[in-house]
Every structure is written in structure tokens, then in C-alpha cells.
Amino acid sequence: MSLSSQNLFTTRTTAPVDIKGAAKTAAPADVKKATKCSDIRSDAEKEAVASLIPVMGEILTRLAKINTPSNFQALEKSEQITKFHSMTIAAMSIANYLKRLANYLDLTEDSLLYMLIYIKRIEMMCKLKFSEYTAHRIIITSLLIAVKFINDHYYDNRFFAEVGGLSLEELNKLEVEFLYGIDFNLYALDYQDGKKTGEITTYREEVKSFQQEMQAQQNSLNSQPICKLP
To answer: Which residue has the higher pLDDT, 173 or 106?
Structure first.
């Protein structure tokens, strides 16, 4: 499976310049040199992730839209600019970006749930808003940290950077910034009577509920009669 070398952070406006520490739009490295490992997930795990990706994409897209100001100038007035900020909104949608990451990083259901938990933590602890200006960098960084924390086998930072459209140097800095931002608080579950409980369980239930709502809405649309115009 070859990776596209398109610039994932190509913007809808002119090329940005560095303003008050805002992250420049980054072109990905030559991802053709990356070697994809054998996928050791079970078929059930693959199916679970495939069904979860559209739901996660919708959740994150809605969250980003709520927090996105009208333009970068308005953003500068409302919050502190960080390494996670881009000066312009990425051309690749949040949903498609997440699909791309899932296609190449052999993600698990738990890694996606941990990603959501870490995004919430960085928002609460650092007042870093998840918006269309920060979404892509927050997603790739939180996912990298989640995969490292819960999986025994995972791709290294170089492969994550190549797939995510960032330089290795930038991703390394984002990872450190994120970890300090959440005070290295990576745990999200407890075990009681051999069962997973705690924050991870709550998030799983909420995502499942949202997924059912999405499916119900889709079924409702599909069942509506088609109006044929004369």
C-alpha cells in the first residue's frame, strides 16, 4: 500500500507565514520510503474500527466547528496561539484526515477512544480549543500518544509524521508539548472484577450512543418516500 505524497495541510488561502509562534503549514516528507508492517489485528477489530471511524469523524468535526472563529484574526484575540495552531484551515477535512490515519496506522477501537479522552484533557488543562485551526495536529499527536500507551506494537514517530503530513521534528515537539499539557496523565481506565471501568467505559458508551443516533437518522432518511416532480 503506497501513501500519497500530497500536502495534507494544503490550505484554502495563500501560504502562511510564521506569526506569534503559529505553526506553519507543513508539507509531508516522502512517505514512499515508509515501510508498513503486517496488520496483526483480528477481523473483528478491523471491522470495529471501520465502523467507528465515521462516527469519530463526525464527533470531531462538530466539536471543531463549535470552536472555530470566523478567521485567524478573531482567533488571535480569543486565545493564545500555540504550536498546534495553523494560520489557515487545512484543505483536507477532519473526517478524511482521520480516515487516512486509520488506513495506514492499524488503529484499534481503544486507541481512538483514548484519543478522544486526551483531546478533552488538553482542552480542559491547557485551555487549548479543538478547532479547525488546531484539529489535525491535535488528532495526530493525541493518537500517537494513545497508541504508544496502550499498544505493545506500534509505528514509530517517523511513520506517524509521514502519514500525518508533518515533519518528524515538528511531531516530536508536538508530542512533548501535549504530554506536558496533560501533565503526563495517560491513564483512563480501572479494572473491577476483571472488567474495564472508568473514563474509557464512559466514552465508549457515549460514542456507541452517538453511533446509534447517526444510524437511526440515516435509516429515517433512507425510508422517506421520494418525491417525483411532474
So the answer is: 173
3-state SS string over 129-164?
CCCCCCHHHHHHHHHHHHHHHHCCCCCCHHHHHHHH
Cβ atoms within 10 A of the Cβ of 209, count? 10
- Residue 225: inside a domain, yes or no? no
Q: Are 85 and 22 in contact (CB under 8 A)?
A: yes
Q: Is residue 189 part of a domain?
A: yes
Residue 215 is assigned to a structural domain of this protein: no
Q: What is the pTM of this model?
A: 0.77
Question: C-alpha grid cell for residue 228?
Answer: 417525483
Q: Under a CB-based contact definition with an 8 Å cutoff, are residues 141 and 99 in contact?
A: no
| Dist. CA 55–CA 51, nearest whole Å | 7
Residue 170 lies in a domain: yes
Q: How many domains does the chain have?
A: 1
pLDDT confidence of residue 20 = 30
Cell of 23: 505553526
CATH number for 173:
1.10.472.10
Domain residues for the domain of 84 are 42-207
The dihedrals phi and psi of 215, each to the nearest 5 degrees, come to: -65, -40
